[in-house]
Structure formats: C-alpha cells, structure tokens
Amino acid sequence: MARILGIETSCDETAVAVVEDGRLILANVVASQVDLHRQYGGVFPEMASRQHILMIVPVVREALEQFGCTWSEIDAIAVTYGPGLPGSLLVGLNVAKGLAWSQGLPLVAVNHLEAHIYANWLVRPGDEMPLPPSFPAVCLVVSGGHTLLALMSDHGSYRLLGQTLDDAAGEAFDKVARLLGLGYPGGPAIQEASKNGDPAAYPLPRAWLGESLDFSFSGLKTAVLHLVQSGEAQPALRGKKLAAPLPAGAMKRLAIPDLAASFQEAVVEVLVEKTRRAAEEYRAAEVLLAGGVAANARLRAAMRERLSVPVRIPHPSLCTDNAAIVASAGYWRYRRGDIASWDQDIQPNARLPQD
Amino acid sequence: MSPILRPNTLDIISHSVAQTRRLGARLGMRAQAGDIFCLEGELGSGKTSFVQGIGEGMGVAGPVVSPTFVLVSVYSTPPGRPPLYHLDLYRITGPQEALDSGLEEYLYSEGVVAIEWPERIREILPIEHLWISFRYLEASKRGLMFQPRGARYEALVNELTRDIYGGKE
Q1: What is the C-alpha to C-alpha distance for residues A172 and A264, in angstroms, rounded to an integer?
Q2: Which of A29, A243, B7, B60 minimizes the number of CB atoms within 10 Å of its CB?
Q3: Bigger pLDDT: A347 vs A240
Q4: CB contact under 8 A, B139 and A87
Q5: Do B97 and A175 touch (CB under 8 A)?
Q6: Cα A144 to Cα A12: distance, rounded to the nearest angstrom
C-alpha cells in the first residue's frame, strides 16, 4: 500500500490531497481563486502566483488534518510540473521539493494533462469502489487550456489522436460568455443561460476538419461574434439589415438563452462525434472524460446517449483542477520507479507525454 | 497638406481566414531574430489566425494554438531560424504584471515575438516594432493595418507591400 500527497498549483486553484493506492481519496483540499478572478473575467497570472504563496502552507496543513495522520504515513510527494502558468507552477514545485527534502520522501513530477485523466480512477470517501478503467481507453481531455483526444494503452502510455488547432473548448466557453456579457467562468455561465434556450435557434458552424480527430473552435467563436455584431442575435433587429457593425455598447437585448444553447450544442456535438469515431477506430474498451469541461451536463448526457462503449465520467468536483488527480497519476509513476531529481524544473508548455 | 496615411503604412482588407493566414505567412517568411510584431484587435478579429500564418512562414512544425491559458508558447523552427514566441496578454492587467511574470525576457530576446493584446503593456514594449491593427468588418472580412516603428520595420512593410501587390524587387 502506498499513500501519495499531491500538490497542484498550475492555474488558479491551490490544492493538496492524499490518495491511497492511486484510487481512494483520504484528503482533498482545494482553495479556489475563482471569486478573486471573477471580477476580471479571467485568471490573472501574477495575482494567481501571489495567492498560491499565501495559500499553500495552510492548504497542506488542512489536508494533513483531514487525513488525520502524520508525515510518516506518506510514501511520496507528487506535484504538477506543467503545463500551466509559470509563476503558479513554480510555487507548487518548490514547496513540493522542500517538503520532500525535509521529510526524506521521493518526489514525483506529474503532467497536468495526464493527471486529469486519472480523475477516472478516483473514489471519494464513502463511495463504493468500482472496477478500475480497462485498457485500451480513449480519453477526451477538455479544459480551459486544452482539448485533446488520446489513446491510453496502459498506465503512463499515451498516443495523441487529436488536439485543438486553435482555441481550447473551455477557452471558447470563456470567450463566448464574455461576448454575451455572461460571467466568468464561462462554462457554468453558459450552461445556466442555455437552460431555457433552443439549441437549434442559431445554426452555428461545426468544424469537422474531414477525417481528422483534431478540433477547431476559433471559427465558432467568430460566428457568435458575427451574430452579436450584425444584430441577428437581437430579436428586435432580426431581419433588418444594418449599415455597419454595432458599436460595442449596443450589445443589448440579445437572445441570450438561444445563443448560449446553440453555442453549447455546437461544441458538444463535435466533441461527442470525434470521441465516438476515435473509440470505434481504436476499439476502445472504455471512454474516459476529463478536464473542467467534462463537468458540463449537456456534454455528459450526450456522451452517454450517443456512444456504444461504456463512458466513464468523473464526479464534477474531480473534473476541475484538484490535487487528488495529481496524487493518483503520481502513484502509478511512483510504482514504476519514475522519481524526479532535485533539479526537476517546471514546463509551462508541456504536452501529454507520448510513447 | 498632411498625408491621409503615414508613409510606409500598409492598409489591407482580408476576405477570409485563409487569406489572413497567408498574410501572416508572408510576414513569417521575412521575419528575423529580434522582430517584434504587435497584434491589436478584438476577440475574433483574426489575430491568432495571423500568428498561425507567421508560424507557417517560419517553418514551425505542428499547430500554433491560442496561448491564452499559459501566456506564452514557444515554437522551434528549422535549424538556423529563430524560434517563434507567441505571447497572449488577454489575462494580463498591465505592464507591472507582465514584468512580474517575467514576460519582458521575451521582448528583448533573439526570437521572433508575436504579441496579442500588446496595448496592455505599451509602456514596456521596445520602441521599434511593427504594430498591426485588426478590425472586424463583416462576417469573414477583416481590416489589417500595418504600422512600422523604426527603419527595420519600414523596410519590412515595404517588402511585404511588394509581396502582396507584386512589382519589381
């Protein structure tokens, strides 16, 4: 049996967790800066790293209290090395090194994208423990910074099948929410706004890119911008030809629920269809969803409706950034003897490790 | 009479994403180590498409994607060519934050630097640079205006103008 303490500071959450054998969550603390960033409509990097410095020690302490044990019962420390914001990653990595050094524990460096996939192994305290995912699995990682499809043939063994060629899916949610004057983060705001909307109200483009499993969401964002600018998304102006684009301040009385629902449907349809194709082509035993956008209710429902293989979807609280996923991914690396050296550095532009 | 446009300014309309990308590629082909390209314009005005073109012109392998999440993406190019640094300051509030995040290292580097949302750090930009403004005109139409600051960029815009409209070298 091995217990791993995970540390995650790649973006705007300061998080520490303890996980047993890569699956059972013994402690999981997430201090979010979302409220702090909400007023600016996004994450502000320097503010994020200052917040991490303030939060990290109390969060480590709280996680150990939740765990109810001492350092002697921890076997290794796992930490995110990238991708992420440089200043934020540095805080987590240096704290992890300091703790590992002082406690005489091995340090395991974890890729943030790989960590998201491991949400599918985690079990929350009190929940029944299901069988672990079977290989080969097709993984869809969708978050604010990333959108990728990967084939996972074993622990730590990945092949990239497709990725976004421009904006990440979560980024498209954030930017469209901003265009529509909805709040930050954009995912929950658009999901909420689309509840009473008609997903077929606006025919928005889907970038299929032929047979490719790559994604593109930039054109979709631009199409929403065009609807807003041209007045077509304003019921009062629909059907009237405008002489010029509306000034920024004129974005009022938009058909928000219809626009939000149509946008969400366009993103979900492409994500589901490409995942379905990948699962068929690579004869996946299972499909694993991961990343913050996997918390989207419409995506979860559509995946289960339209795929013929089992779809595993983590609890929403494990889809967004947390340290339990880092501890879980770190556990399998630790078991394989994949220990980081003391000169381990951050990699802000890291990609999913490939075979 | 004062001129309507500054000399050496290039004002052009792109009719498609593909055309915006090709314009970027022409600039990328002529880019040199230390070049600074500032791309100003609203969401959806074509900045990232243009940088994808720059990457193509510089011989970057693999996709150039939006770096909004990580602030800066570094792309390597074929041997003998400078790297491409793609900065996205969408989430930066001002020059101090850019300095605190270590972004000025890229502004004075040996790479080619393409900056989205450069107006947020105007105070710390090198004086000589190429300022490119993107305007949303219609569904797929965008206006691009190239304004050089400094002799290197004036020459570059002249070369680019010849590339685009044809004419004798």
Answers
A1: 10
A2: A243
A3: A347
A4: no
A5: no
A6: 11
Structure ipTM: 0.76
Q: Which of B66, B72, B139 is closest, CB to CB, to A166?
A: B66
The residue behind tokens 């082909």 is B29
CB contact under 8 A, A44 and B92: yes
The verdict on A159 and A220 lying in the same domain is yes
pLDDT in tens, A233-268: 665 555 555 556 655 555 456 788 999 999 999 999
Tens of pLDDT, residues A26-77:
999 998 766 655 555 555 666 677 788 888 998 999 999 998 888 999 999 9
Q: Are residues A92 and A115 in the same domain?
A: yes
Residues A80 and A168 placed together within one structural domain of the fold = no
Tokens of B54: 């720059």
Using alpha carbons, select from B20, B7, B49, B26 the residue that is nearest to residue B147.
B7
Strands across the sheet containing B142-149: B10-14, B142-149, B129-136, B36-40, B112-116, B84-88, B72-75
Please tell me whether residues A19 and A68 are part of one structural domain: yes
Structural domains of chain B, with CATH: 6-163 (3.40.50.300)
A14 with A40, same domain? yes
* Yes or no, beta carbons of A168 and B69 under 8 Å apart: yes
Contact B164, B23 (CB under 8 A): yes
Residue A214 forms contact with B (CB below 8 Å): yes
For the whole model, what pTM was predicted?
Answer: 0.85
Cβ contact (<8 Å) for A45 and B74?
A: no
According to the model, what pLDDT value does residue A251 have? 45
> Cβ of A351 under 8 Å from any chain B Cβ?
no
Integer Cα distance of A42 and A37 in angstroms: 6
Contacts of B17 in chain A (CB under 8 A): 219
What total number of domains does chain A contain? Answer: 2
Chain B touched by A293 (CB under 8 Å): no
Name which of B94, B52, B46 is nearest B75 in CA terms: B52
